Amino acid sequence: MPGQITFSVQLPPVPANGDVDSGELTVKIGDDLEFNRTFAPSDSLIVDEAFVGPQGATVHLSMVYIDDAGNRSANPAVFDGTLLDTVPPADPAAPSLVITGEV
What we know:
Oligomer: single chain
Number of helices: 0
């Protein structure tokens, strides 16, 4: 049975001369869920308990930078991916013998 996949978003480094005051990330999971998250230029990873979706769902990420005057990047950076289960199950414990008699 397919499960729910959790994820976080790795942000690229902010350009040194980028005049960036903050950023905005839009995360769309499948056709139904969409979230907007604001982040600081020093942030490198966005972790959010809302970032979860069904295995096989498409995830669309879109990101813009915002300067101190409220101007937004002209061209958002985008990424499209699919939530895949790449986490292996737990390792099994070692089997053992049960002596049941002697013949």
